[in-house]
Design goal:
- With about 270 residues, the chain is an alpha/beta fold.
- It has one domain: 4-Layer Sandwich (Metallo-beta-lactamase, Chain A).
- The protein has 7 helices and 13 strands.
- The strands form 2 sheets. It has an 8-stranded mixed β-sheet with strand order 4-5-1-2-3-6-7-8.
- β4 (about 85) and β5 form a beta hairpin.
Amino acid sequence: MFRAFFLTIALIVPAFAAAAEEIRLYVFDCGSLRFDDVAAFGLTNDETEVREMFVPCYLVEHPNGRLFWDAGLPVAIVGQGDVPLQPGTTMRYDRSVFDQLDDIGVSLETIDYAAFSHMHFDHAGAANAFVGSTILMQKPEYVAAFEMADANPVFDPTLYGELADAEFILLEGDHDVFGDGSVRIIAAYGHTPGHQVLYVDLANTGRIVLSGDLYHFRFSRKDRRVPSFNTDASATLTAMDKVERLLEETGATLWIEHDKALADTLTKAPRFYD
């Protein structure tokens, strides 16, 4: 009996190890934003020289499925050069994420799950394309985006409205996407009502947390600065504490998604992290 038990364990453990080694994280360039003034982000123009933000999209490939995370700037601006957003702010998006997915042989129909850190326009720009995927969204974010969009002015329902016909899994806290702890959505409310971040455990690269907009700048993290347009400053600070504890407990590295200096060092698709 005991011999059979240990034989079973011996078979299971290598299977989990093999699965971990097969997890891949792809990073896509889904545009950039440039600001003349960064005061809205809770800091002064003298406190950072950074004026340009990277806008990423990501794909996680797991033995049990694919998860697309964050959908970049609106795909309608692709190839148009510098596009004014508002006085003092421009956006640019040179090559569509759809073309970048084609580069790695991934079609939208094969993406099982899509999740967005939140539904601001620079994270939901290609959201409508994922109507065939199961959407993993915090319930407060769903209410804000689909029932109270007028009260959330940085939301643009034209970018994600078609998802109303998609299958949703509405979350009310943290969520283990594939059931083995390797890919976890972490509730981090405050920037928007249902903001979330993503934890990914990679065999060779190690553990990574994708920040969403928990922080926009390195200085924001260092001094715990909260943008003026966050929906709940107190909840944001609580979320910062929660995520910092997660980083400490797991030894994970935080990738501030909008950090262009970091992005310039990252390996982009079609290459990947594993």
